[in-house]
Design brief:
Elements (H helix, E strand, L loop, with lengths): L1 E2 L4 E2 L3 E3 L5 E6 L10 H9 L3 E4 L9 H5 L3 H16 L4 E7 L1 H12 L5 E4 L13 H4 L5 E3 L1 H4 L14 E3 H15 L9 E6 L8 H9 L5 E6 L12 H14 L9
Parallel strand pairs: 4-5, 4-6, 6-7, 7-10, 10-11
Antiparallel strand pairs: 1-2, 3-5, 8-9
């Protein structure tokens, strides 16, 4: 079920394409598969089946999200990827924001032919975020507008929940710390895309991932104008095209141009 007024989806999606290749798509923290719908449809139009699941605690309520731990998200992504891999010859992974961190973790555990990261979060812009595990027991939520405010622009339209569940934020901090310590174990071909106008997850995150992974085949594409959800913003067509080009160029199935 999709709620366009709240820009949230309560379920995953699957867009089928003929052929042996697929991409597993992972949405971001407090968001849902809603903002990943267009990239999913585009990949299917390019001959690559696109599948996305709702992460535990998402598409439901902030209270539900606060009841989850980062291992729940890791387990969900692992199960979803393995399920798709059991039916397709090759499965790429596309991850947005926290989904990028989950993608990197999956790339450490699985032999993935290629990963694409949209605005991956691996470090946090304010040191106070690292105090969240201590604050969360006393503060359940934080309004998103305090994170998206920009004096030069109108507040960015956010997807999913209107608040950050603070206990869940503490789990994001734990997840990113875990993945950051293991970035050197990532060797899959990697495409990173990040906007310098991103005020939710600063551009430095994308550069940090690029610098620290051990992939011999890696690329960082920068954008100037898109907000955090660059796969759904003003540069989205280019983001989609670059994603498809990367997956096709790394496909052992020799996907034909559509």
């Amino acid at each position: 079920m999709i709620d366009p007024e709240r820009k949230i989806s309560r379920e995953g999606f699957r867009y089928e394409a003929d052929g042996p290749s697929a991409c597993y798509i992972i949405h971001g923290f407090t968001g849902s598969t809603y903002e990943m719908q267009e990239i999913g449809k585009y990949m299917a139009s390019q001959g690559i089946t696109a599948v996305a699941d709702i992460l535990p605690g998402h598409g439901t309520s902030p209270d539900d999200c606060n009841s989850k731990v980062y291992q729940d998200w890791i387990d969900s992504v692992r199960e979803g990827y393995d399920r798709l891999s059991a039916e397709k010859e090759e499965v790429f992974v596309i991850g947005f924001s926290m989904g990028g961190a989950l993608t990197l973790n999956l790339a450490i555990e699985r032999d993935i032919p290629g990963i694409v990261l949209y605005a991956p979060i691996i470090k946090h812009k304010k040191w106070t975020v690292y105090l969240t595990p201590f604050v969360a027991p006393f503060k359940e939520y934080e309004e998103k507008k305090q994170f998206y405010k920009n004096e030069k622009k109108k507040p960015q339209t956010f997807y999913g929940y209107s608040v950050y569940p603070m206990k869940a934020v503490a789990e994001v901090v734990k997840l990113t710390w875990r993945v950051r310590m293991k970035l050197g174990q990532v060797t899959s071909p990697t495409l990173i895309m990040h906007s310098k106008a991103d005020i939710a997850v600063p551009y430095e995150n994308g550069q940090y991932v690029y610098d620290w992974i051990n992939s011999e085949d890696k690329q960082l594409i920068s954008y100037e104008h898109s907000a955090h959800a660059l796969m759904a913003d003003c540069d989205k067509i280019n983001v989609w095209e670059e994603t498809a080009k990367f997956l096709k160029s790394h496909s052992g199935a020799k996907l034909s141009e559509v």
